[in-house]
Amino acid sequence: MDLDIEIDGWPSSYDWADLAYRATEAAEKVAPELANGRLTASVLFTIDEDVRTLNREWRTKDKPTNVLSFPMLTREELLGLTPEGGPEMLGDLALAWETCMREAAEKGIPLESHALHLLVHGLLHLAGYDHEISEQDAEAMEGMEIKALALLGLPDPYGDRDNQE
Predict the structure, then answer these.
(1) Would the annotation count 131 as a binding residue?
(2) DSSP symbols for 24-55
(3) Rounded distance between C-alpha atoms, residue 81 and residue 100, angstroms
(4) Is 121 annotated as a binding residue?
(5) Bridge partners, 93 (sequence order)
(6) Bridge partners for 158 per DSSP
(7) 117 is in an annotated binding site
(8) 133 has pLDDT over 90
(9) What is the pLDDT confidence band of residue 135, given thresholds at 50, 70 and 90?
């Protein structure tokens, strides 16, 4: 999958584009339908206010959130996509700087680790996975995230819920 990456408001001291490609490679391994070379996704690393605006316009929620995903293909269209043909836009992701920083600090983990998790999570949403449908769907999606993060050398973000509270 090809990525169109824009970085606005995130510190230049880290290679966020490389991080996005690493997350994509891991997501493709747990969700092979994402590995189609025709696919393109846009990734926007931006500030809370921009994500708040998107969230208000598209989801009628007037607040920032850590990651937003805007799929442009249905799950059926993605699964039916052949390797031959022109480029296909999978969708858009937007990550909010201040929210991601705050959540990483609250979890006591590096921002880069949290951003990797959020990117994998968002990519799985673009692939049609949805944790809000049912508990079974949530567990399946979390399992995929755990596998992808393990490929990146990161621990299970859901494993110690009881110890985090």
Answers:
(1) yes
(2) HHHHHHHSGGGG-TTEEEEEEEE-HHHHHHHH
(3) 33
(4) yes
(5) 43, 69
(6) none
(7) no
(8) no
(9) confident
